[in-house]
Amino acid sequence: MPASLKGKVAVVTGVSGDGQIGQAVANALAESGAALAICARTQSNVEARAAEVRQAGARVFALAGSLTDESQVRRLVDGTLSEYGRIDILVNLAGGLTRYKPAVEHSLDDWRDEVANNLLSAFLTSRAAFPHLQAAGGGVIINFARAGLPQANMVAYNCAKAGIEVLTRTLALEGRDVGIRVNAVAPSLVETASNLAAMKPKDLKRWTKREDVAETVVFLASPAASGITGQVIAVTGWGL
After folding, report:
1. 3-state class percentages of the chain: helix first, strand second, coil last, to nearest 5
2. Which of 90, 159, 200, 219 has the greatest CB tally within 10 Å of its CB?
3. Helical (H) or strand (E) element with 187
């Protein structure tokens, strides 16, 4: 039986481009019955994704903003509470790899931006949502780490994703006495529109499907995962 999130409110960050993970996650949560609050940097993208969810019959609140800015994080959380009165699920998907170069070529701004987009954003959003999850009687935070060993030319991104794993386990420890479960999803190379365009693969057998990532998020958000917290769940498809 598919997981049911009927009556739950899910905040999902990084719901941006067509053919990306955020789109798949938002659609899967909506199909499971959750009402959504979605956020991304680009107004046109987040509005397009919201329109898709509404066409499918789900309720969605959409906001554009940078989640490395405390005031914009507060706007997202306050807007969600104003719209729905509660928050039950937070999915910290915002971020991504934007600096691909040897470590010695990373500028200080490269480092700061990559760590901020991938780690600081998850911390700020989790911190802002935490008391409201507790007020709802407990809830779920799902972060996004990365499967596999670190790769060259991605030093800031690698360090940020390692930080996500520690953030996940720390928040899980702090949430266990107030009913807040915290886990991370760690995909390997995913069949996103941007990855396919950039890498032009001839064989997708070992790539991870967006839908598999999204269904893992739905599972972790659901009561079926009530005994799971502080874990990093690798979603690698057949890549292993």
Report:
1. 50, 15, 35
2. 90
3. strand 180-187
To the query of whether residue 100 is one of the catalytic residues in this protein, the response is no
What span, in angstroms and rounded, lies between the C-alpha atoms of 218 and 220?
6
Catalytic residue (choose from 61, 157, 207, 219): 157
pTM for this model (two decimals): 0.95
Helices and strands of the chain, counted as H and E runs? 8, 7
Give the integer Cα–Cα distance in Å for 60 and 137. Answer: 22
Residue type, 24: A
19 falls within a domain: yes
pLDDT at 239: 64
Q: Tell me: the pLDDT tens digits for 40-64? A: 999 999 999 999 999 989 999 999 9
Report how many domains make up the chain. 1
With beta carbons less than 8 A apart as the criterion, state whether 11 and 92 touch: no
DSSP class of residue 151 equals -
Q: Does some domain include residue 2? A: no
Domain span at residue 206 reads: 9-235
Nearest to 19 by CA among 45, 43, 37: 45
Q: What DSSP state is assigned to residue 33?
A: T
pLDDT of residue 1: 41
What pLDDT sits at residue 95?
Answer: 94
Residue 240 inside a domain? The answer is no
Domain assignment of residue 3, yes or no: no
Q: Which helix (H) or strand (E) holds 235?
A: strand 232-235
60 contact partners, CB below 8 Å, separation of at least 6: 26, 30, 35, 36, 37, 38, 50, 53, 54
Q: What is the mean pLDDT of residues 87-99?
A: 95
* CATH number where 63 lies: 3.40.50.720
